[in-house]
Design a protein that fits this description.
Layout (H helix, E strand, L loop, with lengths): L7 H6 L6 H19 L14 E5 L3 H12 L5 E5 L6 H13 L4 E4 L3 H11 L8 H20 L4 E3 L16 E2 L5 E3 L7 H11 L55 H9 L1
Parallel strand pairs: 1-2, 1-4, 2-3, 4-6
Antiparallel strand pairs: 5-6
């Protein structure tokens, strides 16, 4: 997959840091180690069947970089995407193009339709704006339950977390073994400029919403463009306090669980 036009996001952001080459080598080494450690049971190249590791992709800038590395390195690591039922049309178009071009298998997980229908009927289609509890309950149905299915049987998963993304992620390690399932963050040390330098140098297709000042892209009702000088994730759940801005995918088990919130709201 490649862009024929270098958009605004590349023009504005593609600035490699001084040690970019070292960080690129580091990311490749982390992925190669994950492949050797967890993907040895794969049945056939690029499929990842039986593999104990998978990449979680939101199709954002960081994730398309990681997927490109997985494909270019010909690793036996599968990739999954959570199709929440509330994604932007640009994200859905990118998903279809990615599925058609990826060497690695791409599996799409969707929420249980009846659960979505019942939630919307009970709380309304704009429930996420009414309270943090309702917003996290929506995330629980649309993201957390499908995530649980996507990670079933896996010992490790790969994410696009970077320390620079937010204060809550400032200590993200390359390999996090603090939970039962290892979380691998190959771009933990990368800057936003590094990400876009890789995209430019490798002509990686990315979500056109990035050209419209969406650095972090989630569900359409919960994502807006940001202004110059705003935090990377300020366009996500912009009506909430900064401390609440996680959907649950990257919350430690000792913290408030989205599933608990979902159960309380649904009761």
């Amino acid at each position: 997959m490649s862009n024929t036009n270098a958009g605004k996001a590349i023009e504005l952001n593609a600035r490699a840091s001084g040690d970019y080459v070292i960080k690129l080598a580091e990311a490749k080494a982390v992925l190669a180690q994950a492949n050797a450690q967890y993907a040895a049971e794969s049945v056939s190249p690029g499929v990842g069947l039986g593999s104990k590791v998978t990449q979680a992709s939101s199709l954002g800038a960081e994730d398309v970089v990681i997927s490109h590395l997985i494909n270019s390195m010909q690793l036996d690591i599968g990739i999954f995407v959570l199709q929440t039922g509330a994604l932007h049309k640009e994200t859905l178009a990118l998903l279809e193009a990615f599925k058609a071009s990826s060497r690695a298998s791409v599996t799409v997980y969707e929420p249980v339709n009846e659960a979505v229908v019942q939630f919307v009927a009970r709380e309304g289609k704009d429930a996420m704006y009414k309270s943090i509890a309702l917003r996290k309950a929506c995330c629980g149905i649309r993201k957390m339950e499908p995530l649980e299915r996507a990670l079933r049987g896996k010992d490790a998963w790969i994410t696009g977390l970077r320390r620079e993304q937010s204060g809550a992620r400032a200590d993200v390690p390359l390999v996090d073994t603090s939970e039962a399932r290892t979380k691998i963050n190959p771009l933990a040390n990368w800057t936003w400029g590094d990400v876009w330098h890789y995209i430019r140098e490798n002509k990686v297709t990315y979500n056109p919403l990035h050209d419209a000042f969406y650095p972090s892209i989630g569900c359409e009702p919960c994502t807006r463009a940001i202004s110059l000088g705003e935090d990377f994730r300020s366009g996500r759940w912009w009506w909430e306090d900064e401390a609440a801005k996680e959907c649950g995918l990257h919350v430690k088990s000792g913290e408030a669980a989205v599933s608990d919130l979902t159960a309380r709201v649904s009761a």
